[in-house]
Specification:
By secondary structure, the protein is an alpha/beta fold. It has two domains: about 130 residues, Alpha-Beta Complex (Aspartate Aminotransferase, domain 1), CATH 3.90.1150; about 230 residues, Aspartate Aminotransferase, domain 2, CATH 3.40.640.10. Helix content is about 40%, strand content about 15%. It is built from 13 helices and 14 strands. The strands form four sheets. Strands 2-8-7-6-5-3-4 form a seven-stranded mixed beta sheet, sandwiched between helices. A three-stranded antiparallel beta sheet has the order 10-14-13. Helix 8 links the parallel strand 5 and strand 6. The longest helix has 21 residues.
Length: about 375
């Protein structure tokens, strides 16, 4: 009865856990900052409302916002013209547009496993075939070029790179990113680089595949994580102009344009003061230390270098889903590793986008549950 493209996918494993929780649960499953959107950004949105910016915008986005995005990416050595940028309703739409414009039925998409929950379903919706490239704890959960090379076939169309990564917090190194670009050039496929956590770094530096001046790179980003604007739904993609034109065809019919007020707010975020970003990253780094201190007593865990997640493995016979259900019943929300791919089994994702007090309280329950296994 239903379309095959939707019958092949399921609802997010993250949402499944949220439905099991009690109202007073401590939420360490969140994939968003627990900070408010900075005041100057909200004020810009209010001014836009008062000025009457409540209509459709140019399909690609307001020109001044596109210029601000281009300027933002110059810090990473990426030089993009107006015709290479499209504003979208969140980074999720940018990912969807990229897959729709690139992937034909039967094309293979190499994705990191464990990796963000949307990659595989979006691949299937586009008619593609997900191919897991395992990221290993012994490599710091960094995707390795030799692992990608082993996955390449004549059907390979896209490689997804995510740095800093969800759910592991891994940050790819320069030589690894360079290796991915060289593989894309040599084997005639595209890289979709998910960079939504680019500013949430504690070690290393952010390297964008687009900095290698390749025509085979599509950057996906948003203001959601960096500026605590997840609900504003404003993302963007940077890609070769010819590909942006193909993405625009889909965008016109499913969305028309990104939200007008959110575009004005995003412009204020990108060109305005960045103090709030630095403060948020500083606090996240402190929370990371608190979480790792707890985890070092009870689990194996790679210290994340970016984002706001840890991905520990506990010594328990429970599946990751069973463990998260028991923790949910005890009042703590975390996400099963299996939600992020078959190689995520045995792990859970814990977000430290919560207060230090809540983190400490949650780990009382986690330690009690784990020690009882």
């Amino acid at each position: 009865m239903w379309a095959e493209r939707t019958s092949q996918i399921s609802l997010s494993g993250i949402r499944e856990i949220f439905t099991l929780t009690r109202p007073d649960a401590i939420n360490l499953g969140l994939g968003q900052p627990d900070f408010d959107t900075p005041v100057h950004i909200k004020e810009a949105a209010k001014k836009a409302l008062d000025a009457g910016y409540t209509s459709y915008t140019p399909n690609l986005g307001f020109p001044e916002l596109i210029d601000a995005i281009a300027h933002y990416y110059e810090q990473y050595g990426v030089h993009a013209g107006q015709e290479q940028i499209i504003c979208t309703s969140g980074g999720s739409e940018a990912l969807h547009l990229a897959f729709e414009a690139l992937v034909n039925p039967g094309d293979e998409v190499i994705l990191p496993d464990p990796g963000f929950v949307a990659y595989s379903p979006l691949t299937r919706v586009a008619g593609g075939v997900p191919v897991s490239a395992r990221v290993k704890a012994e490599d710091g959960f960094k995707l390795q070029p030799n692992t990608v090379a082993e996955c390449i076939t004549e059907k390979t169309k896209v490689l997804i790179v995510n740095s800093p990564a969800n759910p592991t917090g891994a940050v790819q190194r320069y030589d690894e990113i360079k290796g991915f670009v060289e593989l894309a050039e040599d084997h005639d496929f595209y890289i979709v680089s998910d960079e939504v956590y680019d500013k949430l770094l504690y070690e290393g530096e952010h390297v964008s595949p687009a900095s290698f001046d390749s025509e085979r790179v599509i950057v996906v980003n948003s203001v959601s994580k960096t500026y605590a604007m997840t609900g504003w739904r404003l993302g963007y993609a940077i890609a070769p102009a010819a590909l942006v034109e193909e993405m625009l065809k889909v965008h016109q019919y499913i969305q028309a344009c990104a939200p007008s007020i959110s575009q004005k707010a995003a412009y204020a975020a990108l060109i305005g003061p960045q103090d709030s970003v630095r403060s948020m990253v500083k606090e996240f780094k402190t929370r990371r230390s608190v979480v790792m201190e707890h985890l070092n007593e009870i689990a194996e865990c790679v210290t994340p270098e970016g984002a706001f997640y840890v991905f520990p493995r506990f010594a328990t016979s429970d599946t990751s889903l069973d463990l998260t259900k028991k923790l949910a019943q005890g009042g703590v929300i975390v996400v099963p590793g299996s939600a992020f791919g078959r190689f995520g089994e045995g792990h859970v994702r814990i977000s430290f986008a919560a207060s230090r007090q809540d983190i400490d309280r949650a780990f009382l329950t986690i330690k009690e549950e784990v020690s009882a296994r």
